[in-house]
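re: ur msg from earlier - yeah i can do the heme C complex, just paste it... oh wait u already did. ok heres what im feeding in:
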Amino acid sequence: MKQRSIPYALATAALLAAGPVLAADMPPLAQKSGCTACHAIDRKVVGPAWLDVAKRYAGDAGAKDTLVNRVKTGGKGNWTEVTGGVPMPPYSPRVSDGDIAELVDFILGLAK
Ligand code: HEC
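and the outut:
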């Protein structure tokens, strides 16, 4: 019994340790691009939680294009109930098109 319970306890501890880290960690590209000033994965900061963005657009085939455009040119009024109407600033050309696409892929991937 003792021999079996030790690996089980280790596995449980590993799961407990991995969960919150994965949920809260923003990728380095998001930090470098300045997104983390207003966004977190699992809670609202100034902008909506990226997990909530992912959930809203899950299953929407045009979501990637929509969100790439919003990050490039900014957005307003889509998350008023969460943000109180604060706008999302435009990020092109400060952040490259490739980096914006990568960030949007990351965000949409959160709900998969
Ligand atoms: C100054 C604060 C701020 C920064 C910095 C910021 N955002 Fe936002 N973001 C917002 C706000 C506020 C909204 C909600 C806008 C709205 O209501 O339409 C938003 C919304 C979004 C959305 C959802 C758009 C939609 O229409 O559903 C995405 C995706 C997003 N941001 C990605 C990013 C990325 C990627 C970065 C970094 C390159 C970034 N944001 C940096 C404030 C910010």
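cool cool. Residues 11 and 17 are 10 Å apart (CA to CA). ping me if u need the other ligands too
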